[in-house]
Amino acid sequence: MKNWRNNLLKMENLNYGVIGNCRSAALISEKGSIEWCCLPDFDSPSMFAKLLDRRKGGEFAIGTDEDYQISQKYLERTNILFTHFRKDYDAFDVIDFMPRYRVDEGTGYYHAPEIYRYIRFISGKPKVRFRYDPRLNYAIHPTKTTIYKGVAKSVTNGSDYESLYLYSDLKLEEVLNGDEIGIIKDYFFLISYNQKLIPIDLQRAYLEYQRTKVYWLNWVNRLKSFSSPYNDQIIRSALVLKLLTYQKTGAILAALTTSLPETIGSVRNWDYRFCWIRDASMIIQSFEMLGIYKSAQRFLNFIVDVIPEKDDKIQIMYGIRGEKKLRESFLDHLDGYFGSKPVRIGNAAYMQKQNDIYGILADVIWQSFRLFPSTLENSEELWTIIRKIVHHVRNNWKKPDRGIWELRTKPEHFVFSKLLCWTAVDRSVRIAEMLDKTTYIRDWSRLRDRIRKDMMKKGWNEDVQAFTQYYGASYPDAANLMMEHFGFIDASDEKYVSTVRKTKEALCHDDLMYRYINEDDFGKPETSFTICTFWMIDSLYKIGKKEEARQMFEKLLTYSNHLGLFSEGLSFANKRLLGNFPQGYSHLALIRTAILLCEECIEKRDEFKFIKP
């Protein structure tokens, strides 16, 4: 009896590829197993969740005997994933994708909640066993799979009914039984949330593959080109960011997963399948740098739709359809990623007060006025939002908040929050100048100056010789590196140069950055936060440490997974990817840094450089 491998091997890293179609997505292990997928949408209950419980979560695995060599790559310039299996002359590929392509004469998109697995025969007589084991609705109740004519239907009959359909030209009885199957030609699987109304065969599967391939190739071809040694990384990161967009509304997710911990075994586990105003806005800025203007405009429309009228509260985050209540609950029956409990759905941070969101939002609106011709109706709505933002800043900038890192301890006067309040008013002044609103310009300029004066007096610590985390603190915060980025201070200013140096001394370990090192509500942070490392690289470059910045960047690139993907953070000890995955924050920062470090891109980069006050 052969020793079959069914992909229950311990995964020591987030070595997953991601496929998606701007409605939902799936994570596929380096051995070809689907281990995370929520259908029909990103934030729906999971259909496969082995990622969060290796025994109960469910998967769609491909078992081969242990002599097979398995490798994985993306079809170049697409989000189509190839997993290659080879043993001597026996070889085949599994091609995974979620269909996405234009329909209706180019005005709409086909992006059904389904996954194609195209088995491409290459040579020899390869033999496999499949393990098709969906566990619907987060595996809360048992899932039963029954074979009908031409389809296997999986259902769960708990309090919330769910169903899933599997189509294939292989014998479904053999697939579900885990029988040994010889691969002698091409085959297909289709996993669909909806029952199909047309016959699905190999020819149809191949057509969907070709349509999806053409869509991604065309999309990448529209990106602005840069003469950069990091083009491959820029393109892959752009493709990741595109997968995080929700077609129906224009919202952008922070990440595709929930409850992947910041540290193995810790309780720092959050659901990131929502739209943070801060994260999404920074992603849009990266889109603008790459010429992806439609996604930028669609997100702006989403913001206009979700921002409440007049004096209502602006939230830090929303559901991908604009939902305002994102109640947090626990899935206690799941063991969590490598035993890291709790597994959470929803996110209580939506109730937090974070003053920095005003600056990010105002900055995006300013970019919109600068880059996009606006209709009168759109301009008036955006101008109303800007006046609302300044009103909020005027009433709140002196108050403490939870800060960019969403600390659940007592609020403080975080320097970064003050910076973004200043940014909100600064960008509002610039918009008022564009619209020739003289009264607003004078009033808002005075407010901007008051915030700046307050920050320079209370945010700067003379003993530390740096801007610190909050007023009166003695320790730094990596977020303050963004002061130059937002135009608050020049890179040549001695206080900024000193802040960069002192922050690096305190927070950098083995060329990776902590966010901060002081204790928070869960103790001292134990892992690196990837976007902070990119921020440090940018800052070093801007203060003249260009070669040090390049070396640090190229070292960081080696810590991505086997497909060039990053999660939220990294372990200092073994460089293991940690946190939710793939992380929009990390990939937007990669794009910005890669362009910054490319001397040949100076002209293109300057086109997007923030105007200094």
Summarize the structure in words.
The protein is an alpha+beta fold and 613 residues long. It has 2 domains: 4-221, Beta-galactosidase, Chain A, domain 5, CATH 2.70.98.50; 231-606, Glycosyltransferase (Alpha/alpha barrel). The protein is built from 14 helices and 29 strands. The strands form 9 sheets. The chain has an 8-stranded antiparallel beta sheet, covered by helices on one side. The longest helix is centred in the middle third of the chain and has 21 residues, at 376-396. Mean pLDDT is 90; it is low at 1-11 and 602-613.
Compact description:
This protein is of the alpha+beta class and 613 residues long.
The helix tally amounts to 14
- The largest sheet has its strands arranged as 7-8-9-12-18-16-15-14
Any idea what the shape is? Answer: globular
Radius of gyration, in angstroms, nearest whole number = 25 Å
Q: Could you give the distance between the termini?
A: 73 Å
Q: If classified by CATH, what would the architecture of the largest domain be?
A: Alpha/alpha barrel
Class by SSE composition: alpha+beta
Mean pLDDT value:
90
Main CATH class of the largest domain: Mainly Alpha
- pLDDT < 50 stretches: 1-11, 602-613
- In the CATH hierarchy, the third-tier topology of the largest domain is known as Glycosyltransferase
